[in-house]
Amino acid sequence: ESSSYATPLNSTKKDDPIAIADALAAVAAGSESGMAASASKMLRGYHSMQAELEEVKAKNVELSKEVEELTETMTSKQFKAPSAWAEREVKYKLEKKEWEEEVEDKNAKITALVSENEMLRSEKGTDDLNKKIVELESEIVVLRNKYEDAKASLHDMQVSSLMSAGEFSMSGVKPVAHDDDVRSMVDKIESESESHEASSSRQKDTVDEHVMQEELDKVQREKEKIISKISQAEEADATNVLLAEAEIALLESGVDMEDTAKIVEL
Question: Which terminus has fewer CB within 10 Å in the chain: N or C?
Answer without folding.
Answer: C
